[in-house]
Design brief:
Blueprint lengths: L1 E7 L2 E8 L4 E9 L2 E8 L4 E8 L6 E9 L3 E9 L7 E8 L9 E9 L6 E10 L12
Antiparallel strand pairs: 1-2, 3-4, 4-5, 5-6, 7-8, 8-9, 9-10
Length: 141
Amino acid sequence: DTAIYRWETTQFVELQRIKSDGAGSLEVFKINDDQMLAIAEFNVGMAAIYKLSGAYPHEQFIEWQRIQAPGVGSIATLWIDRGDMPARQLLLVAASYVTRTTGWRTQSSVFALNVSMTEFEIHHSVPTVGAHDVEAVSIGS
């Protein structure tokens, strides 16, 4: 399980436990005004995405989407708004696993939030070798 904590005045208190299997990475981000949480579940090859629902102090993360992501070890999000193309929210998934045929060579994935902002869809794959982490970096304006 993945324990989620909230800061309460002087200390952290548990908000909830989310069933997960091999959680290796968490990513917190927003879609519009909705607080989201993505969990990289290595053991089951899934990226689980949750949306915060309810009012303080009874809010809970509820499942929003599950994405097949074999070998997922890390997740990051990135908002791209270059002006020459429509703004997009991306979910980056670093994959790292070994098979007898591919060894450490695999495909990490980039997912894009669809136009209706209801789910992430595969955008493209990136060949990687043993990727254990992914980070989003903004360069320039």
